[in-house]
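Anyone able to model this chain together with LJD2ZHX5?
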Amino acid sequence: MMKLQLAIDLEDIDGAINLIEKTQESVDIVEYGTPLVINFGLEGLAKIRNRFPNLTLLADVKIMDVASYEVSQAFKYGADITTILGVAEDQSIRDAIKVAHQAKKELLVDMIGVHDVARRAREIDQMGADYIATHTGYDLQAQGETPFATFNTIKENVTKTKTALEGGIKLTNLDEIKQANPDLLIVGAGIATNDDPTSAAKSFKAAIK
Ligand SMILES: O=C([C@H](O)CO)[C@H](O)[C@H](O)COP(=O)(O)O
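re: yes, here you go
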């Protein structure tokens, strides 16, 4: 069954806690977004972990190097899943997967910025990552891009890695989401900046059942 991940990017720690309280019934995974990592560090993640001991938490650290160390730090501060970039060196991705699996945690490879998507998806699939995410970042969303076509290319080129779809997903995209049918749907602003985040999260959850 498709899971729903709420990406929290635009809040401070109190705001993140408030948003989790409003939406946690409908979301499977909460993402501690990259802007929060930059603004509040992993100490902020630890505060959220202390407040919600049973929540599945993803730390969007978008690792590029020193993978073993950075992955273990994210887990030490409370993450269950962490992210590395698909454009990182193979060695870094292999190290990240190894450390994650030794800790009985999961690793998501974010394909933002990858140009030869089909080939890289096959390589990541062979390395044994848990998730591979198609990601249209904010900078390309602003140019009108969406992740759906790239998602299909990735899905066609993996055999065992769970697929994730992210980047500007809104409630108006429900038809495309159902057609894409990812294992994990990642939604940030589509829930967080909605006037009623509780009902937006509920609507996403009901639609992907
Ligand atoms: O990873 C993200 C982005 O790079 C900012 O850190 C977002 O969490 C991701 O794009 C999901 O958020 P929305 O695009 O607002 O749905």
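The mean pLDDT is 98.
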